[in-house]
Amino acid sequence: MGTVLVTERDNLGVVVIEVTGDVDPAAAAELRSALVRTLRPTGPTRVVIDLRAAGNIVPEGIGAVVASVDVATDNGISMTVRSAAPEVAEELLVAGLPRGCVTPSARV
């Protein structure tokens, strides 16, 4: 099971959500909850989902990330996904995440 860690950097208005391990349905629910708590009108100016240490992500986790981009945009929050494994980056793009929001890792 994966874990989701939220690290807030108040002085810059940036929240980093770090995902480690495989994201099974339970971890996907944890990720969705972290995104809901973070993406509020009085929230940060920027959210970064760091997938550097993430493994496989179930479709529910992919869906949570993609849906959160609309919420972030509605609340004036910039959101990016960084260091996604190439196959995860492709899944995010196929699911509708704008290309400019995802940065794949160099992993092969």
From TrEMBL:
<dbReference type="InterPro" id="IPR036513">
    <property type="entry name" value="STAS_dom_sf"/>
</dbReference>
<dbReference type="Pfam" id="PF13466">
    <property type="entry name" value="STAS_2"/>
</dbReference>
<dbReference type="InterPro" id="IPR058548">
    <property type="entry name" value="MlaB-like_STAS"/>
</dbReference>
<protein>
    <submittedName>
        <fullName>Anti-anti-sigma factor</fullName>
    </submittedName>
</protein>
<feature type="domain" description="STAS">
    <location>
        <begin position="13"/>
        <end position="108"/>
    </location>
</feature>
<dbReference type="InterPro" id="IPR002645">
    <property type="entry name" value="STAS_dom"/>
</dbReference>
